[in-house]
Structures are given as C-alpha cells and as structure tokens.
Amino acid sequence: MIDFDLDKHDINHVHFIGIGGISMSGIAEVLLTFDYNISGSDMNASKITEKLMKKGAHISIGHHEDNLNHCDLVVYTAAVKEDNPELIKAHKLNIPIISRAEMLGLLMKKFKTSIAVSGTHGKTTTTSMVSIILEFSNFNPTILVGGELDQIGGNVKVGGRDYFVTEACEYVGSFLKFFPQMGIILNIDEDHLDYFKDLDHIIKTFEAFAKLIPQNGSLIAFKDDPHIEKILQNINCNVITYGSNNGCEYWCNNIKFDSLGHPSFDVFHKDLHLGNFQLNVPGKHNVYNALAAIVCCRTLGVPIEKIVKNLKSFHGTHRRFDLMGTFDEITIVDDYAHHPTEIKATLEAASQVPHNHLWCIFQPHTYTRTKALLNDFASSFGGADKIIITDIYAAREKDTGEIHSLDLVQEMQSLHENVTYIDNFEKIATYIKENAQPKDLILTMGAGDIYKVGKMLLDQ
C-alpha cells in the first residue's frame, strides 16, 4: 500500500496515464494545487488537457515510454490496458503503480469528512447539488465531480480539508478503494455487464461499498429501491433512509411542475415539515437526487434555509438536460442518458417542457451494454414522438460484430412507428433540418459525442 501524504511530498512527481479523463484530471488538478510535479499522457488533446497545461502540468499527446521521466508514482485509468508502453516501462523501472480509484481513495483519507455519492444513475447531478449547497453555505468543500459545473468553474474545486465531495463509481468495483465517512446510494440497476456477472453481483458490490463506512459514519439510502432496502439490514453504520413516503426517515410529497418542467416539493423529516423546495433542473428523478442532497447536507449541519436557497440556485451540469440553443424556433437539449432507466427519466422530464414534437437522437454507448440490455433499450423510448438511432459509441471496447444499432432499431420497430437509423452526424443534422418543425424539441442523448449534432445544427 502506498503511503501518500498531501503535505509531506515524499512522493512528489506523479504521472497520469489517461490524464484527460474527467476524474483523472480532477485528481491531477488537486495535486497541482498542493505544488506536486504533475505529468501525464492522453490519446487526444482537449480543453481539459489545455487547462492542466496552463496550471503547470506537462502533457504528452499519445502514449509512449519516453513520456515516463523520473516520476515517483504512476496513476492509470481503467481504460488503460496492460500493453500500454508507459505502464510496461513503469513495471520495468519498479515505479509504484496504482489505479485512479486507489489514488482517489488515498486523497479521501486526508480529509476529515469524505462524502461519496454512489448509484447507477444520478451521481453527477447529486454530487453537484451537495457541492453547491456546501460551497455557498461557507463549508468550503474540496470537490471532484464527473461533469462540468459552471458554479465552480469546471469539474474540480480545491477548498479546505474538512469536507471532500466526490462521485463513487461502481464500475470494476472502483468505489471499494474509497474511504468514505458518509456515503449515498441513489439506486441500484443492471449496468456495466462487461464487468459484473449479474444483478446480484452488482447488489453485493454496493453492499460492500456501504460496509466501508465506519460505525460513526452515515449511509444515506433511497429506500424506494428494493435492491437498496435488501442490503440495509447488513450495514453497521448509521443508516438514514429517504424516499416517497413516511416509511422513510426523510420523505417528500406534493410534487408539482412549472411550465419548464422544474419541480417543487415538500420535504419532511419524520413528522416535521422542513419546507418547500424548488429546483431549476427538470424531472421527477431530480426530486429524489435533490432529496438525497438535502439529507446529506442537513446531516452535516447546514441550516434548512440555506439548503433551500442554494439548491434553487443549482442549474445543472453540462450534458444533463443541457439547453444548447434554438434555431428556427426549434429547441435543442443534450443529455448524457445512456441506460434505459435514464432514457425513460429524461424523456419524462422532457415531456413536461412545452413542445410540438419530441425528437430523441440516441447514440448507444458500448457494445456490451447495448447487447445485454437490448430489450430494455427498445422499450424505453415511449415518451418520444420521433426517434433516430445512430452507430454505437465504442468507448473502451472493440467491435466484435455481435451487435449493431440496426439490431436495436429492429427491436424497436414493433413498438414505435417513427424510428430511423442514420449512420453519421452530418446526415442526422440534415434530416432534422429538413423535417423538424417550429416548436419541436430535439433531444440528443448518449454518453459519447452525440452532442456534436446539436452543435452542427446551431452552427448552420
């Protein structure tokens, strides 16, 4: 186990393989703030790598063994394979090597209260809500979020050493390397089946995460989710439940939506009415994300009136129902949803926004997810009037030829009259330009680069 101390600098030069990733870059930026010597490599230059270079990091584009110069520690992302030349050289030189999750876990140990937000869906939004409430309640948290949050100027903000707020991703069991004092479990669903054997494996992994929380710590859990309720009896720390009814410690009701789909709702702690809360992000799913953030911040001692005010000031992170702009009275919104549950929730949120036709332009994310959840994907677009499916975004995977977007379209055709396959973004933009009507709502959706379609339309 690496002994890492933010202040001692026994390890001073840290090299990141895959430094352009949202979490890797955040960790690197924290270390730069503490005057560490940071280098790293990534396959592509980006705004993230440019920002790190301006802050003093040495960035190499492309992976090569020569990028590894006299470093004390190598951190790698999950996308890096064993044949990576920098990883191979680090092994040869006996340089200590740890994963991104291990490095994040080491950082968490250096803060008095580390808050880890987990769940198959909603991590980025809930982490951002917690962060904004704490930040503008003068708690001065250090923040690592998996998206761009304008109110902190990006995906990371280095504050004091009392509070550390971060997402806790379950993929490859990453969050089992963490040291949370407070944990949140938003939901448990089937996903990442290229790693997990089945749903039971996923549930047990979340249970193992919950057991990391010390006895004097707290687990905030969404009791409406039967998979979460199943594990609560085995947890030794303080468990605080939230949900939609008074069988939970914290609960909400009287949910209403304004003309933009933004909800308001009442929150209760047992029988005590805490107040009415208003959000500036759409969708019922965000009511429960917000409720988790409310419970977290109240448990940490934030006064209710500040939670109400700061939660209302939250306008979302990039790529989470992100209003990109309008053209010819047609509105374009982009969203990161890439799982059937997320698609349904996002389309439900979109249905609350006044529109003529609702278009959904979906880019499936990874071959394994598309294949494993094909039937669920096919039935998740009921809220859309017109659907365009484009090619699968490979991400970390290789195309084995077992699954294609046309397979998804075929499954969908018995359920939807207006589903079309279009293989590239330029053709999609042209099709929309020729067929969309004033007052239509265009929703680009997926965890890849489908947002480029919206940019094309607006640039035209």
Automatic annotation (TrEMBL):
Its encoding gene is what?
murC
User: Which SUPFAM superfamilies does the entry mention?
Assistant: MurCD N-terminal domain, MurD-like peptide ligases, catalytic domain, MurD-like peptide ligases, peptide-binding domain
What keywords were assigned to this record?
ATP-binding, Cell cycle, Cell division, Cell shape, Cell wall biogenesis/degradation, Cytoplasm, Ligase, Nucleotide-binding, Peptidoglycan synthesis
State if Cytoplasm is listed as a keyword: yes
For this chain, the family text in UniProt reads: Belongs to the MurCDEF family.
Top-level taxonomic group: Bacteria
* Mur ligase central domain residues: 117-296
The compartments listed are: Cytoplasm
What's a GO cellular component annotated to this UniProt protein? cytoplasm
Read off the InterPro entries from this record: Mur-like_cat_sf, Mur_ligase_C, Mur_ligase_C_dom_sf, Mur_ligase_cen, Mur_ligase_N, MurCDEF_pg_biosynth, UDP-N-AcMur_Ala_ligase_MurC
Record-given protein name: UDP-N-acetylmuramate--L-alanine ligase
Chain ranges passing through the membrane: none
